[in-house]
Amino acid sequence: MGTGWGGFDNYPYTYCHASLYQETHDIELVGIVDPDPSRLIWGTTRWETRGYDSLEAGLESKPDFVSICTPADVREEIFRVLPPSVRGVLCEKPYGLPHLEAAWQFPVQVHYPRRFCPFHRAVKDGLYYMMVEPVSVYVWGRRDMTTLVHFTNLAQWLGAHHLVYSDNTGEIPGTNSYRIEAGKWAVDFRNGGVAGGFMELALRNLRDYIDGYDQLDSPITDAVASERWATEIMAGR
Predict the structure, then answer these.
(1) Segments forming the whole domain that contains residue 215
(2) Both 204 and 89 in a single domain?
(3) What is the pTM of this model?
(4) What's the pLDDT tens digit per position in 85-130?
(5) Which of 53, 73, 89, 222 is the most buried (most CB within 10 A)?
């Protein structure tokens, strides 16, 4: 998700963070940090930027924005060494529920694509204007933390009071689908292109928040709360 390593650089829309910064006209991608030499060489060649094998070296370029796309167990360490000059952070998930108080001193936008997807925004607006409750979300998908945090976050964002999660036993292995119900109103989605990335909207919202024009649509506090919900599901509760 950081550089597109593994094929994520070839999507028909902006999907990885390096692509996002390269395609935003008033932002310069000043570098990529990766301790793995092969990934670092691939990423710097693919995006024609500088590479650093340590975070401390990368921060010497004094970036305004930082993307964190590491495994969950090292993210807290990264937040603790970010300098106050960093204006905003765009971050992947899950977090693994570390102690993330250090993150809250920075504006952190967590990349939950459905919060920025026009289709899902229309659903959320419909729920608000129709004043229907309670909202229920039924999910059929893979039982792993990476999948679960997406749908628990979606349910939280929609104001769901009830969430049912079942392992995917359908005919298409690896796919996820979900149904949102509110009274007599319901909508079904299949995961995939409907989420669409929408990273440009996430970055724009983060910048508007920093400039005082908007609320942050996907704050880190919401991400941590949805992961607690996901953790309970993983534990079978």
Answers:
(1) 17-112+197-219
(2) yes
(3) 0.89
(4) 999 999 998 876 556 777 778 899 999 989 998 888 998 888 878 7
(5) 89
- The answer to the question of residue 126 being in a domain is yes
Same structural domain for residues 100 and 131?
Answer: no
User: Could you tell me if 155 and 61 lie in one domain?
Assistant: no
User: 130 with 75, same domain?
Assistant: no
Measure CA 232 to chain center. 20
- How many domains does the chain divide into? 2
Same domain, 49 and 29: yes
Mind listing the pLDDT tens digit for each residue in 188-220? 887 655 556 789 999 999 999 999 999 999 999
DSSP letter for each residue of the chain:
--S-TTTTT--SS--SHHHHHHHSTT-----EE-S-HHHHHHHHHHHT--EESSHHHHHTT--SEEEE-S-GGGHHHHHHH--TT--EEEE-S---S---GGGGGS-EEE--GGGG-HHHHHHHHHHHHHT---EEEEEEE--SHHHHHHHHHHHHHHTEEEEEEEE--SSSTT--EEEEEETTEEEEEESSTTT---HHHHHHHHHHHHTTSS--SSBHHHHHHHHHHHHHHHTT-
Closest CA to 109 of 93, 94, 89: 89
Tell me if 105 is assigned to some domain.
Answer: yes
Structure tokens at 166: 């079942």
Residue at 231 is within a domain: no
